[in-house]
Design a protein that fits this description.
This protein has 3 domains: 157 residues, no CATH class; 244 residues, Zn peptidases (Aminopeptidase); 110 residues, Alpha-Beta Plaits. α3 packs across α9 and α7 packs across α9. The longest helix is centred in the middle third of the chain and has 19 residues. The chain is an alpha+beta fold. The chain has a 6-stranded mixed beta sheet with strand order 8-9-13-10-14-24, with helices on both faces. It has a 5-stranded antiparallel beta sheet with strand order 18-19-21-16-22. It has a 3-stranded antiparallel beta sheet with strand order 3-5-4, with no helix packed on it. β18 and β19 form a beta hairpin. The protein is built from 9 helices and 25 strands. 40% of the residues are buried.
Length: 520
């Protein structure tokens, strides 16, 4: 039975045996128990509809009015709640001791005992039937069953010791500057964190592979992460705030490194699982492909070729991202004739030629390519423009840098050939680097097991990653990490602590699950 709506003319003093606690607000008047009203209900202001304000710090109780709540609690046990009603988000602005519009629990004497309520409530209307409504879903926090709107924050609040440990490790790594080519400090720090149970199989030129004592007929899974970052943008040192670790590299990919380091450390003291787990740490990932240290690793290490699956902990929003785009970097130079800016008709302005020639290139529509059912987008962008001699001189040369991100259905040679067909007249093209795309791997037993460990979605990787280095050597590899693709390389870069916990727990379940013989 629900408490009555706001009393129209007087407070009911006689409640008999009922002892109703103060409710929350909701965007509608009550639909039941209005028989004691002394006039018609003609008011649609916010009413209080959720009974249970005296919540403990370690649980959330929701009555059958089917409301979702967002609370900072130590434990959430919401797995079997009925489906919620969908509706607008509201926040209870009035506190209990204000008694706005006399919305009281019919016993003014009990109000001082309740204290102030500072909770936010999602009120929803959705027919529950018999479907289980709330469950802890990977990367979506506490959410409704498939097909219904989310009624809780994207990530369930993580206040466990694991969350604190992962956040602290991530911040520790963020606070060590590691811009590409300046990685010595973080490299040495990470090497000290590798558990003694892993021995170094390879270690030189910013690439370090650690593997356990190999067991016969046991698949080797390698967790791979780069420790360099793009230049800081006023976001160093980092900080922990609002449930996230903020700072350069937090999302790409020091959060992933923190997960890998903590995970291999925990596995070192646990009973052996069905997989051997290795660790690959490397630098210079944020630089052109000719500075990539991994080709030397693949040329020199025998153990790396025993890898059954490599998991590159790039930012993927907690999903599996398969394959990756190729990337051609090229310089497109437009040629003209220099001259005095007072007599431009005697010169041929290379800037004008660049403007005319680049227009059609940068306005090209993206090309969509389906590879194993995943949609990759091929794009061509101008990223730099250089030219000019002096303020009073018309230049005879202007150079644009192009980035051609090509789909996995092209080979590197085909990508270059296609780019050359786009070169305008009186322009020359010089390819400075060409990183091959990664092969899409979605149907191997190990990838299926990883997917099942977290009910993970599978998406294409709309970027280049070191997955390509593995698949070029015939090794299955996917991208999976806690970082957020939308925050990578940004001034406000961050990784949510709940995302760190999610990635850790998925990988821990995966590495402890039974894998079929086909994975060997």
């Amino acid at each position: 039975m629900l408490p009555h709506a706001p009393h129209a003319r007087q407070v009911v003093l006689e409640l008999c045996e009922l002892d109703l606690k103060l409710p929350f607000g909701a965007p509608r008047v009550l639909g039941e128990d209005v028989q004691d009203q002394l006039r018609a209900v003609d008011d649609t202001r916010l009413e209080r509809v959720l009974e249970r304000p005296l919540l403990g710090r370690a649980e959330l109780l929701v009555h059958d009015e089917h409301l979702g709540g967002r609370l900072r609690v130590h434990l959430l046990e919401l797995g079997e709640l009925p489906l919620a009603h969908e509706g607008p988000w509201i926040r209870a602005a009035a506190v209990l001791d204000e008694l706005a519009d006399r919305r009281d629990p019919r016993s003014a004497r009990k109000l001082p005992q309740l204290g102030q309520l500072r909770r936010a409530v999602d009120a929803f209307r959705k027919h529950p039937d018999d479907e289980r409504a709330l469950r802890l879903r990977p990367w979506c926090g506490i959410g409704l069953a498939r097909g219904h709107a989310r009624i809780m924050p994207r990530y369930a609040p993580s206040v466990t010791a694991l969350a604190e440990r992962l956040a602290a490790r991530t911040l520790e790594l963020v606070d060590i500057p590691s811009e590409s080519r300046n990685e010595e400090r973080i490299r040495e720090h990470l090497l000290e964190l590798v558990p003694a149970s892993l021995h170094r199989d390879y270690g030189r030129d910013e690439a370090f592979l650690f593997v356990p004592q190999r067991r016969p007929d046991t698949p080797l899974v390698v967790l791979a992460g780069h420790y360099d970052t793009v230049p800081a943008q006023g976001n160093l040192p980092g900080r922990i705030a609002d449930g996230a670790v903020h700072g350069v590299g937090a999302s790409d990919m020091k959060g992933g490194l923190a997960v890998a380091i903590e995970l291999v450390g925990d596995l070192a003291t646990a009973a052996p699982g069905p997989c051997d787990v290795g660790l690959l740490l490397f630098g210079r990932e944020e630089l052109p492909s000719e500075e990539n240290p991994l080709p030397a690793l693949f040329a020199s290490s025998r153990m790396i070729h025993e890898t059954s699956l490599a998991i590159v902990l790039e930012p993927t929003d907690g999903r599996i991202q398969a394959g990756c785009l190729g990337n051609v970097i090229a310089r497109l130079t437009f040629h003209g004739t220099s001259g005095h800016s007072a007599r431009p008709w005697l010169a041929d302005n290379a800037i004008a030629r660049a403007v005319e020639g680049l227009g059609p290139l940068i306005s090209l529509e993206r090309r969509e390519v389906l590879v194993d059912g995943l949609a990759f987008y091929e794009t061509l962008s101008a990223t730099r423009l250089e030219g000019g001699i002096a303020d009073n001189v018309i230049p005879d040369e202007v150079t644009a840098t192009l980035s051609f991100r090509y789909a996995p259905d092209r080979t590197p040679g085909e990508a270059e050939a296609h780019l050359r067909t786009l070169v305008p007249t009186r322009a020359t093209l010089e390819v400075t680097s060409n990183a091959a795309p990664g092969v899409v791997v979605t149907d191997s037993p190990l990838v299926e097991a990883l997917r099942a460990a977290g009910e993970l979605e599978v998406e294409p990787k709309q970027a280049w990653t070191n997955v390509a280095d593995f698949t070029a050597n015939g090794i299955d590899a996917v991208n999976f990490g806690p970082g957020h693709t939308a925050y990578a390389h940004r001034r406000d870069e961050l990784v949510e602590i709940s995302a760190l916990v999610h990635a850790y727990e998925v990988l821990r379940r995966f590495l402890g699950s039974e894998i079929g013989e086909d994975a060997l």
